[in-house]
Specification:
- The chain has 104 residues and is of the alpha+beta class.
- Helix content is 18%, strand content 39%.
- Strands 1-2-3-4-5 form a 5-stranded antiparallel sheet, with helices on one face.
- The chain is globular.
- The protein starts with a strand and ends in a 5-residue tail after the last helix.
């Protein structure tokens, strides 16, 4: 797996984490995680680039994410980007299982 880009920022009272990788099969995958004060407005999604656009591949409930403990009021040094990294890794692992037709 090769990291292409990672962005972590606070905007509109939410923490946003975007990470793009290229996996060992050459697939470009993007994890997009948004965390704010409301679970129903927060999400963790993964997309695959098809050569033209990003297509939705998988997601996980924010309640299952490590970053669920983060609040938008945290300062950047308190916001624990490492938890978002863990969640992006989980999204990529599930995406690879889907793309490789691997059972759990």
């Amino acid at each position: 797996m090769k990291d292409i880009d990672t962005r972590f920022y606070n905007q509109s009272q939410s923490w946003h984490y975007v990470r793009i990788i290229e996996d060992s099969m050459g697939n470009k995958l993007k994890a997009v995680i948004r965390r704010n004060a409301y679970d129903n407005q927060s999400y963790a999604k993964c997309y695959k680039f098809d050569g033209n656009e990003w297509k939705f591949l998988n997601s996980m409930p924010i309640e299952n994410c490590e970053c669920q403990v983060i609040s938008y009021v945290h300062k950047k040094h308190e916001a624990r980007s490492d938890l978002f990294l863990q969640d992006s890794q989980t999204l990529f692992e599930v995406a690879n299982k889907i793309l490789n037709n691997s059972p759990d």
